[in-house]
Fold this sequence. Notes:
- By secondary structure, the protein is α+β, with helices and mostly antiparallel strands.
- 24% of the residues lie in helices and 22% in strands.
- The strands form 2 sheets. Strands 5, 6, 7, 8, 10 and 11 form a 6-stranded mixed β-sheet that branches. Strands 1, 2, 3, 4 and 9 form a 5-stranded antiparallel β-sheet that branches.
- It is globular and about 45 Å long.
Amino acid sequence: xxxxxxxxxxxxxxxxxxxxxxxxxxxxxxxxxxxxxxxxxxxxxxxxxxxxxxxxxxxxxxxxxxxxxxxxxxxxxxxxxxxxxxxxxxxxxxxxxxxxxxxxxxxxxxxxxxxxxxxxxxxxxxxxxxxxxxxxxxxxxxxxxxxxxxxxxxxxxxxxxxxxxxxxxxxxxxxxxxxxxxxxxxxxxxxxxxxxxxxxxxxxxxxxxxxxxxxxxxxxxxx
Length: 223
């Protein structure tokens, strides 16, 4: 961990947690939380890490993780390949972070916990909100692209998002129609779990696409 990250951490008043960012030979970036970040009680403001938890911040941490909903924010993640004409038309200027993979994180204020489903948004757009992992600038490869204060999430974008409020383990209505489907769902969940393990994605990485798909199938849902 560089002294630069520690200096940034000391100025952050919202809950954060240490993350290790790595890049493989194919250029794929992986974010591995190094702390029990899924429990809100375990997430501490930067000043708390400096004051009483400095010894707990792992030396190998090169990323500053945060959960956008902790700040009343939602992150709209524009991956490479996104339709920028659509974005220019529908997404107002707001605080924006650049990631090492070349995508952009647009930060909007959002009082409602919407989860991490991209709903009916166009392809190559992801969402990070409640229980979603994002990295703050100062993390390896992350920078501030636009330091504008976050503006409210447009109602038109909110309408495109899906809020999944099903009880844990309950599949969407109509999905299980016969005796074969439950077996197919169980097989799909096993495949997803294996994929998550293979790529080092634990249950804590709630914002992953694998988690989102499993959640759609009624599995791996937050209580």
